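Q: Convert this sequence to structure tokens.
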Amino acid sequence: MTPRSFFNIILKIFGLFFLKEIVNIVLQLISSSLYFTRIGSAGDGVWTFFITALILAFYAFIVFQLLFKTNYLLDKLELDKGFSQEEFSFTIPASLVLTIALIVTGGIILTNEIPNLCRQVFTYFQEKRLSRGTTTPEFSYAIIAGVKIIIGFLLIGERERIVKFIESRQNKKEQVSEKK
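A:
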């Protein structure tokens, strides 16, 4: 695998992550269009719709660049320059693969849940302000998002311990299978 093809794959993977976010933004765009049906909230609906459409356009531009213009990005960013080898040969130990998987998993959790926590806290205070004490807004969703954020940070921060634990369990299974 050449450095150019490696970075081409990496950029396309990032493009797919952004494409996933576009789906979430389209759902927000649909939900913001529901404001137009409520009496007295058309101004809020237009503002929310405009901001969401702007974010959607930005993400669409990024996805287009990452998925369809990767060679252009590679040339401009010069990602494939400066390598002494023309070909990559991969001999990656299992612990490194586990470490990378834990970092990616923790990163995905954080990128999903930090905005979710902000949205839940915003919704809580908005419901509390609008209801003026007549109802009790739900705060458990924000707590769940906070717990997921803590789990994401723990996966990234304690990755060495988790890898050692997984490897020790694997070694015990191999020793048991050798005795049989």
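The chain has two domains: 1-89, 92-180.
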